[in-house]
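Can't paste images in this forum, so I'm doing it all in text. The chain is below; anyone willing to post the predicted structure tokens underneath?
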Amino acid sequence: MRLVAEKLCRSFGPRKIFGPLSFATSPGKVLGVAGANGSGKTTLVRTLVGLIRPSSGSVWLEDESLPASRISVRESNGSIGWCAPDLALYGELTPSENLEFFARVSGRPIPREEAERRIAEVGLDPKRLRTIRTRFLSTGQRQRIKLAYAVLGSPAVLFLDEPGSNLDEAGHRAVEAIVTAQRNRGSVVLATNDPLELALADERVTL
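Text version of the structure:
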């Protein structure tokens, strides 16, 4: 499964944010999205995952094993994962309850053990967090829960928008581990200004 963007543009009124852009992800590869603050990286990612409609152009998923297959990102049924600063967690739920809730509403429920396994993968202790509401976690800890959310269901295309935000050194290592693991099952779109994160990219789109 890969993501394809063709002549993709997005404007807000008379102001053009980006475009036209044409590119595609490749299994096992990381596509970096680079650009100065305000250049439109987050808007591009939100367009690619189907949260914002493009002003013109198209974006879709396709199964390379099926000729002429096109799947709308809005109908991807768990084929994409997303982590971004504006992803909201429920403060009154525990971290594992957040992951279980998101999995359930996406139609792909998971057991508590799976949620806790994902939490452990991002370097947190799921047993210690069983009784702690998410609103009491640090900003960096909440960012790690967002990363755990992004890989629920083992997506074919993983979108990471500024994944290292508010993370310590161990957190950055967790991001690298997630990217490495994702290479084995699909592709990554990584939007960042961090030179170390951009160094993980095989190809770049610069805004």
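The chain has one domain: 2-206. Strands lie at 2-12, 15-24, 30-34, 56-62, 80-83, 157-161, 187-191, 203-206.
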